[in-house]
Amino acid sequence: MMAQKRILLVVGGGIAAYKALDLCRLIRRSGLAVRAVMTKAAGEFVTPLSLGSVTGDKVYGELFSLTDEAEMGHIELSRDADLVVVAPATANLLAKMANGLADDLATTLLLATDKKVLVAPAMNLRMWAHPATRRNVERLKADGVTVVGPTAGSMACGEFGVGRLAEPADILAAIEAMLQGVTALRLPEGAWAEASANGPRPLAGRHVVVTSGPTHEPIDPVRYIANRSSGKQGHAIAAAAAAAGARVTLVSGPVAIPDPFGVAVVRVESAREMQAAVERALPCDVFIGAAAVADWRVAEAAEGKLKKESGPRPPLALAENPDILAGVAGRSSGRPRLVIGFAAETSDVVPHAQAKLLRKGCDAIVANDVGLAGETPGGVFGQAANTVHLVTREGVESWPTMGKQQVADRLVARIAAMLG
Ligand code: CTP
Q: Which of 419, 384, 387, 374 minimizes the C-alpha distance to 405?
């Protein structure tokens, strides 16, 4: 029988440190053994007790602990491992590694090891984008270190962009690939952001236009018709496309979430404004209509505020809004190579989406199962997770329920593949 492979996990001190617990569980479930070393700062986010309970082993932290050195010295720790994994790798830890600093147990063993090293960075998007971090990551890669992530998404600091720890499942996939001796690591799906920041940028040179959020259709200067769309899914797609190297124009209705990093944002209110902004943003290679565009507007919005005492209750005559998606898909000249729509459905999700695909003339429809969201009023709107089917002319892919950022990463990966 093959000996059980052992991972030495270095946990850095960042908000994502708690995800190291999940990672340890996944590593052990896949049949590998894991032993953890924490930096001092990591102890501010997770306790040695919680980490030790998921590794089933002692957790190491102090370089000069006499008992630890007697039992298992810093050289021994890495000698005993098949692979060293740093997750989360903070900007500070990457900087120390890149420069060969060794001032605690984690950095000392990283300097002393002759094993392969995988790092999973996680930090604020501006720290990740900083030239110093870029330099350090390039240096580490030149030294033979493999990098997985970070991915794009919303961050603990309330911003949107590249800097989130890769999903524990993706880190495990990278670990397994490295243990199998795969030298050119093909990044797992969902880690495009890493690929874009560090390596191939699958959408480099492409222009992607994304609509996101609801539209507000005025009734009078102070009232409007709206819907529950939060913009999270559309914004996540814009961030993922930017992380994959595309130039992105995001045409957003009124939302309460921050602008994604590295994306040109055009803010609009109504469907007609959104349509005009999309027209101005064209030409593009890929159009993604993720906005919940109001189907109708008030035919004649009042110029002044409607007053209760000024007469009988005003009837609201509605007029149909232009269909932005169908308009872009139906362009006789300058049609984007890929036109992708969304469909929020509560029943017969796939048949409705297939009909919508043909009716609107697009190349793919991401069909949301909004009936599934259940207990919260408004269902999937504003929620972090999404259950979708990707409907194309070739067939249907049903994706498992996942975070909106993962849906975005996966969609961007599929778009890159479709563009070829
Ligand atoms: N859409 C659009 N312009 C509109 C309405 C919808 O661009 N005026 C786009 C949305 O951004 C989405 C897709 O069309 O990508 C599907 O929207 P949906 O409201 O589900 O489609 P409808 O045609 O309104 O069909 P339904 O009868 O199911 O509401």
A: 384
* 343 CA from centroid of ligand 1 (Å): 7
Q: Does domain 207-419 have CATH number 3.40.50.1820?
A: no
Superfamily, domain 2-194: Flavin prenyltransferase-like (3.40.50.1950)
**Is 157 considered catalytic here?**
yes
Question: Which one is predicted more confidently, 333 or 239?
Answer: 333
Please tell me the distance between residue 313's alpha carbon and the centre of ligand 1 in angstroms.
30
**Residue (of 277, 156, 257, 128) closest to 210 by Cα position:** 277
The beta strand positions in 280-353, using DSSP E, are 286-289, 296-298, 318-320, 338-345
Domain residue limits, the chain: 2-194, 207-419
| Tens digit of each residue's pLDDT (9 = 90 or more) over 131-158 | 999 999 988 988 888 888 888 776 777 7
Distance, CA of 285 to CA of 3 (rounded, Å): 50
DSSP 308: G
Count of CB atoms situated within 10 Å of the CB of 144: 8
229: CB partners within 8 A, 6+ apart: 213, 214, 253, 255, 291, 292, 381
302 DSSP 8-state letter: -
CB 164 within 8 Å of CB 155: yes
pLDDT at 407 over 60: yes
* % pLDDT > 90, the chain: 60
Ramachandran sector of residue 418 (left: φ over 0; alpha: ψ -120 to 50; beta: rest): alpha
Mean pLDDT over 191-216 rounds to 75
If you average pLDDT over residues 286-293, what whole number do you get? Answer: 98
Say yes or no: do domains 2-194 and 207-419 share a fold. yes
- Do 16 and 122 meet the contact criterion of CB atoms below 8 Å apart? yes
For atom 3 of ligand 1, which residue has the closest CA? 323
- Compute the residue count for the chain: 420
Q: Which of 268, 338, 342, 369 to mutate to test the pocket of ligand 1 (most atoms within 8 A of CB)?
A: 342
Q: What would the pLDDT profile of 74-111 be if each residue is shown by its tens digit? A: 778 888 899 999 999 999 999 999 999 999 999 999 99
pLDDT in tens, 19-41: 999 999 999 999 999 999 999 99
pTM, two decimals, is 0.62
Nearest C-alpha neighbor of 324 from the set 250, 272, 255, 252: 272
Cα 365-371-376 angle, rounded to 5 deg: 125
